[in-house]
């Protein structure tokens, strides 16, 4: 008997070299596969809906694996409880669901949503150093929102990713929004897929506009010029969180909270 399972993952990426397995490095995928081996006694390979870089967090990452034999019939509840027993404290399975054998968490995804957290302060913020970018409080919210509206008109994001000849730089950005509550700023981005470092470079460029280091006209011109890797800087990894992966049909019963909600509940 064989069965494919999907897992909804939440993790703090601070101490990981990224989500994807790497030799001699602590990774989310490596930790999950080790937990699966401990639980089942089998060597199981997993696949993820998307890669997250070193230091990037997730509240809604989706992983998938195939299990053969008697363990394939375990209930979703037992997968969640069993894996969380073996996983490190920085990773937790939130839900599990049986899926078709040909289901793929990356290829079948319709959209991915990321949130980026800023804290506006002239002082260190010990409670937020791992989960937000601390920037000076001179921050023009209206200018930032204006820059984000330009992103929604863009189709070629070459300026916001390192130079590459291996893939198209065309992407469809469905949401680019900003909310501010005092010193807390949250940027939210949803797209069919993202290029390498695209979200962090978008944030970096928007912050440049908000702080008056780049004009709105220069921001728009650089986007339109689409010179590979020309926009940034790349915002720190710790402020970024993958909050949702959307499929044609809901996979899980659990509703993943965004990073802001999870942190406020700590």
In the CATH hierarchy, what is the superfamily of the largest domain? Pseudouridine synthase I, catalytic domain, C-terminal subdomain
Stretches where pLDDT is under 50 for at least 5 consecutive residues are 256-266
CATH overall fold name of the largest domain: Alpha-Beta Plaits
- Name the structural class: alpha+beta
Sheet having the most strands? 9 strands, mixed
CATH class of the largest domain: Alpha Beta
Helical fraction: 10-25%
Averaged pLDDT, please?
92
What is the domain tally? 2
Please identify, by name, the CATH architecture of the largest domain: 2-Layer Sandwich
The percentage of residues in β strands lies in 25-35%
How does the SSE layout of this entry go?
Blueprint (H helix, E strand, L loop, with lengths): L1 E10 L16 H13 L5 E3 L8 E12 L7 H11 L4 E9 L11 E10 L12 E3 L5 H11 L21 E9 L2 E8 L6 H13 L5 H10 L14 E7 L12 H6 L2
Parallel strand pairs: 3-9, 5-6
Antiparallel strand pairs: 1-3, 1-4, 2-3, 5-8, 5-9, 7-8
Overview in brief:
It contains 6 helices and 9 strands, in the order E-H-E-E-H-E-E-E-H-E-E-H-H-E-H. By secondary structure, the protein is an alpha+beta fold. Strands 1, 2, 3, 4, 5, 6, 7, 8 and 9 form a 9-stranded mixed sheet that branches.
Structure description:
The structure is a single chain. The chain is α+β, with helices and mostly antiparallel strands. It has 2 domains: about 1-110, Pseudouridine synthase I, catalytic domain, N-terminal subdomain (Alpha-Beta Plaits); about 110-240, 2-Layer Sandwich (Alpha-Beta Plaits). It contains 6 helices and 9 strands. Strands 1, 2, 3, 4, 5, 6, 7, 8 and 9 form a 9-stranded mixed β-sheet that branches. The model is unreliable at about 255-265 (pLDDT under 50).
């Amino acid at each position: 008997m064989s069965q494919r399972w999907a897992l909804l993952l939440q993790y703090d990426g601070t101490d990981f070299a990224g989500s994807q397995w790497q030799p001699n490095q602590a990774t989310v995928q490596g930790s999950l596969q080790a937990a699966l081996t401990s639980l089942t006694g089998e060597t199981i390979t997993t696949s993820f809906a998307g890669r997250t870089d070193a230091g990037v967090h997730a509240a809604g990452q989706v992983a998938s694996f195939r299990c053969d034999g008697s363990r394939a019939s375990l209930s979703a509840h037992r997968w969640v409880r069993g894996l969380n027993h073996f996983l490190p404290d920085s990773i937790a399975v939130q839900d599990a669901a049986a899926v078709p054998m040909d289901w793929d968490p990356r290829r079948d995804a319709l959209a991915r949503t990321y949130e980026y957290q800023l804290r506006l302060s002239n002082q260190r913020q010990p409670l937020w150093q791992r989960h937000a970018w601390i920037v000076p409080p001179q921050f023009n919210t209206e200018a930032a929102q204006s820059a984000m509206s330009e992103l929604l008109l863009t189709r070629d994001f070459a300026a916001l990713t390192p130079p590459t000849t291996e893939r198209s730089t065309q992407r469809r950005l469905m949401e680019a929004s900003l909310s501010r509550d005092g010193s807390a700023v949250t940027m939210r981005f949803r797209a069919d897929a993202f290029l390498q470092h695209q979200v962090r470079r978008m944030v970096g460029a928007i912050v440049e506009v908000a702080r008056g280091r780049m004009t709105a006209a220069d921001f728009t011109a650089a986007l339109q010029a689409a010179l590979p890797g020309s926009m940034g800087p790349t915002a720190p990894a710790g402020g970024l969180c993958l909050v949702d992966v959307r499929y044609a049909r809901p996979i899980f019963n659990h509703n993943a909270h965004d990073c802001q909600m999870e942190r406020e509940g700590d």
